[in-house]
Structure formats: C-alpha cells, structure tokens
Amino acid sequence: SKIQAEKAVHQKKEQSKTKCRKARRRHINLVAEFNHRQRKNIWLETHIWHAKRFHMVKKWGYCLGNSPTEKSYRACYRAMTKHCLLQDLSYYCCLELKGKENELLKQLARICSADTGLTFQEACCLSGRFEGSLNLYRADRYPEDLLGPVTFIWKPRDGSENRQLWIWMHPALKQDILRELKAVFQCSEPEEICITEPVTTSIQEEKQVEVVMSLGNKRKKEDKEGEKAVPVKKIIGDGTRDPFQPYSWIARTTGIAISDRSMEILRFRLIGPLSHSVLTGTLKAASVQTV
C-alpha cells in the first residue's frame, strides 16, 4: 500500500545516513591526530605501519617497535641474505656542527683518539665520501670517561673553509655528548633564529581533532569557548629535546654553531645484497643548478 511504500523509503533514507565502519573510523585530519596522540611519547613516521605488526615499547621518549606479532624471523633472515631488509633508525639523534674546518678539527681531536682507530680527520671521511665511526670521550680524558660510540658524516667541500658535520648517536647518549660538545666549543649562547616556540594549529584543526576523538561516542564535542579555545601544540623535536628550549647554540668567538637535528633528518638502514638495487630504483639524482 501507499503507507508501506512511504515507510520503506523513510527506512532507506535512515540507512543511508548510517555510515559504514570504515567511513566512521576514517581520520578527518591525519596530521592533527598524529600530533595529538604523541604528546607523551614521540612517534616515528613509520609508527602506524609498525603498530599494526609489532609489539610496541616506550623507550627514550619514543614509541618503538620491539618484536613482530607474527613469526617473521625467517622472512627477515631471508631478506637480509638474499634480498633487502629496511630498518627505521630515525630515533637516533643527530647533532650538527658548523664552522671553520681547522677550528672544528682542533677541538674534535680532544674528544677522540687515533689509538682507537679512525678520527674526524681521516682523509676518506673528511672529504665527505664515507661515513666514519668512533668512540667519544670527555675532553682530554682518553682512555677514561668514555661517552659512547657515534657515527659521523662530513658534508663535501664546496670551496669554502666553512664545513658542516653531522654526528649520529643513540638517544641515551645524546644529552651527555651534547653537553660535552657545547663545553668544548664554548657554545653557550642560543642562536636567536633557532629558538623554538610552540607551533600551534588552527582553531579548525583543533575542532577536527575533537571530532576524531569523539567519533567513538557518535557525538561531536561542543566548543564552548569558541575562538578562545587552546589549539593543539604541534610536536617539535624528539623524546630527548624539549620543544620549549633552544636547540641551536653558537660560540661568538669562533662562530662555531651546534644544532640539535634529532627527528629532523630521517635515517634508514638497508641490509642485504639488493640494497643498492633498491636505492637505485627508488632515488633519482637531482640536477645541480649553479646560480
């Protein structure tokens, strides 16, 4: 009858309003939610991929994948021996040094020793062609007071006496090594251009986060304060760096600057005989343009 037909149409309209589970769980703003959920422990950019496949642990201010949820050890071994295995090492901390080459080498020689192997002055590493590794010690204290192992990469020369050096270390060692480098190079004054202020998102992005957090309750939170609502702070830095503190220091006498680049430069490790093939197929060399 006519009444039953109208009732059927009305039911169809109600069913169309009810979204499927996938649509209800869809992230409205990935960046806003990503920042909102990593306030206590920093996430790597591969966090979501690992969280679906690994048991996660909270260490050194990060949330890291510890062990796989499935028995994939044979697959990993097969990849390492015959193909390519990729690891995300972005939680490793990076300290950047800038200044005149002779000034850098003069002070860096105080925190390492040729008796242990390579130094920062090794020709193959100083040219920027190869990465070096060594142990750092407190200034003029070798063989006592070991700080820990690090790896380093020099930026290739560009004709200037100013050089750039990146030193990579485990996050558990970062604070001690940073403190020693600042003391050795007398970098006590924060660089004004590098002082980090808490970057905030827009009011609209904050509202989107509220919607994401309240989707499970199927109701949207009302913003009572409107424009006065406090926006979500974007995470700057990493688990070993306070976003409210400066992260770059300079020595006024020598001009040498130390910057904390942790979580600003991603780092991946490729293991296996096809590693170079994967890199060749993935990366393309940029065309060098001279001004």
Automatic annotation (TrEMBL):
<protein>
    <submittedName>
        <fullName>POP1 protein</fullName>
    </submittedName>
</protein>
<dbReference type="GO" id="GO:0000172">
    <property type="term" value="C:ribonuclease MRP complex"/>
</dbReference>
<dbReference type="GO" id="GO:0005655">
    <property type="term" value="C:nucleolar ribonuclease P complex"/>
</dbReference>
<dbReference type="GO" id="GO:0001682">
    <property type="term" value="P:tRNA 5'-leader removal"/>
</dbReference>
<dbReference type="InterPro" id="IPR009723">
    <property type="entry name" value="Pop1_N"/>
</dbReference>
<dbReference type="InterPro" id="IPR039182">
    <property type="entry name" value="Pop1"/>
</dbReference>
<feature type="domain" description="Pop1 N-terminal">
    <location>
        <begin position="6"/>
        <end position="99"/>
    </location>
</feature>
<dbReference type="Pfam" id="PF06978">
    <property type="entry name" value="POP1_N"/>
</dbReference>
